[in-house]
Protein 1
Amino acid sequence: MKEEKKKSIKDIIKSKLKKISNIALIVDGVSLAKDNMINRLIEIKKVVEEIGKIRTAKFIVKNLPLEDDLKKVQKLGFEVVIRASETDVYFMLEAMDTIYNQKIEGVAISTGNEEFLQVLNKGKEKGKKMIAINPQGSKLDVEMLKNLADITVDLNK
């Protein structure tokens, strides 16, 4: 018997879906550790680019990042949205807005907050390809994510 090769994220994605042409990426900045934020954003963006073309990318945070970090995040192509309060509400509103946008085929959310995951069900209900990205350091149940999203990427491995 031949040994099965270990599949990469790219192989798994290719086997599940064709490339998605318009993806909205929404990152919950509150869920990302501040010490390595830029590298984690690069990793998240790279994973989504393997799935398809990013049409819009938003990074939602509670506090203003350092000016140097802010510039780096913007250079990565993210719109930085700063909400001193109610970041949870704004994240959900942004996700729902992209779900109802006819130009968007897929919605990728990166969060460690379980409260945001119901948006995955709503997106699937509306015919969007839903992508759940479990960011490094998150304690979310990956099996639950797999049941809610079309594509699940666990960056904790």
Protein 2
Amino acid sequence: MTRTVHCQLMDKEGAGLTFQPYPGELGKRIYESICAEGWQRWLAHQTMLINENRLSPINPEHRKFLEGEMEKFFFGEGSAAPEGYVPPEPDAD
């Protein structure tokens, strides 16, 4: 049976994550109050942040920045796109 949570990010009931996706207290909060769809939204946002800011996940300063953005994305005022970021145009079929 799928675990459900009231997703704090999306303000709706959704399928919960199957494991704690990040270590520590932040990971525990995410596991307890963010749905799988909300987590996928973060992964897409994080990828954009890494690419646009040319971050390296092995750099401790970059990881600290990403953790701060994750906290804001889920539980704060939200994580903004880098200045000047223009989202890609959707493919026209």
Protein 3
Amino acid sequence: MGTPLQKGDTAPDFILYDTDKKPVTLEDVRGKKAVLAFFPGAFTNGCTREMCTFRDQLAEFNKLDSQVYGISVDGPAANKAFTEQNNLNFPILSDFSRDVSKKYGGVHEDFWGIKGYEAAKRSVFVLDENGTVVYSWITDNPGELPDFDELRGVLRT
């Protein structure tokens, strides 16, 4: 599965699909700071709380010259319904193959006790304008949320 990304690592390339099934690549996110927020699954309590917090604080993240991306293993259609239900105002990308989740923060295997079901570990990576990881946070507890104040502090520096 590889080692999760740490501060100082170069972010691996990716192609993920947004809710309109349009590809988004690492190259597309370069040029400004990017916040990549991996979450286990749309429509779950913790993930809804996390993505809605990003939604509610998006103006602050934008003022810090950053772009937030939510990334889940759900397909584009489920992510679109999740985005619409929660009025999310930033891209939600689909890692349906789990390849990018495995390269960045890792996956929960047999998630929810379902054999063979893999979900992204809740993790957040801040990339600088050149795609270098300047912040890495990964939790094995799917109910734990990132420290949003800490994230904004990283973006300020």
Protein 4
Amino acid sequence: MTTEELLRAIGDIDDDLVSEAEVWNESSPEIFRKRRKKKVWKGCLIGLAAMLAVVVFLPNLSMSVAYAWEKLPVLSSIVKVVVWRDYYRQEGRYEADVQAPQLTLEEGEETDEKTREQLQQSVETINASVEELTDRIIAEFESGLENDKNLEGADSISVGHEILTDDEHYFSMKVWVSEAMGSGWEQDYFYTIDRRTGNILKLADLFEDDTYVGTISEEIKRQMRQEMEEDENATYWLDDPETEYWNFEQIAADQSFYISSAGELIICFNEGDVAPMYMGCVSFDMPPEVWKDNG
């Protein structure tokens, strides 16, 4: 069937319904039932025709449409997250709630073998890192509990995770650890996979040379100064002769970061890294002139 024949068929259905409407009246329930039945069939046929037009005919209408059709993204191997360890213990004022994530891969026909092998290796590396982290936290918690036979102290610790980005380019996950012992604190751990290569990304991997260290550091300082000018409650260790030892100079070689779902580079610091503990974990969004994904 050609496109013209398809449209003519739809037109014929409309003509039949119009003719039927001319002889229909409310006192004829039989005709009313037939009209309703035909109306339903008409909707189904139009829907089917429209679907056929999109699937069969549209890609053949022009070279540009056909090219765009071929370029529609197909899901590759998907990094999935499951809870690998669910540890809970509560005694006296001691409480631990640890829900550790584990990554797995779903099948994806569009991922080449080399990339999939690298993805698998990256997943295993991240899983080992999270396992080591949670093993240490649980061991420290149980050791503290064991040393406090009379349960005179208190400790409350929790571990969880958050998927920050999961698209065709990047997978970013944050594993957070928080502890409440009087004031409390939080530590965040970030993991980012480039799904196009399967590699776990380090910040240096996003740049051609090490000039990014100075560029990002100066941008962070600019944002710190601006925030302190606009908010009297904001405090960073910067340009302060009284805390010279703590003053932020530049990002670390293993600096924490992630790439947001909007494709933005976010630089992250844990509590106490660049500011007093009351500021919590802080982060800085890098503008496009500092970094923009061109992949």
